Amino acid sequence: MVRCWTGIVPMLLAAVLLLPQEAAKSPTPRKAEHHVPIHAIAARLEDVSTIDGIVKAYYEVVSGPAGQPRQWDRDHTLYTPEMRFVVFNEGKDGGVSAKSMTHQEFADTTDAELGGRAFYEREVHRIAHRFGHVAHVFSTAEQRTAPGGPAIGHSIDSLELFWDGHRWWIANANIWPGERPGRPLTDEFLSK
Q1: Lowest-confidence range among 36-45, 89-98, 168-177?
Q2: What is the distance between the alpha carbons of residues 177 and 153, in angstroms, rounded to a whole number?
């Protein structure tokens, strides 16, 4: 589930495999799941010492040319251990659904959806509110298939951050689809 929910055709999230020894036992095929190994590494100081740094890293980790693995180890350093991604989708009928995921589930799903394709995401606008050690960031992101290419979509990410006295953490990330036919983003989410 790429942080963009518009402009990208979702890939199949799992392939159906019939294992020869199980095919005779069960008429229900088993699904193979895409799993991304994520290793514990130290956070980069430039990623977590400022709000600008953590938001920049949030987008950099999923960006890259075709065939380049995404930076899931680095991504993992940005979040609290119990962090949740909540992804909102709008159906063609206008109905909205929400899916809550752990970091591992988000990485697995996003990596499978990207399918090794080129994808670049960056922040183009921010609305931020801070009180003490807590900050809320509405971040409008733009997605492209090449660094200088045309935008293929936008999303609005709502990030809840906190400062623990040493570094910033993302405690929650809500990802909303951006514009769609008949509903462009409003100036509030695009103006600089």
Answers
A1: 89-98
A2: 9
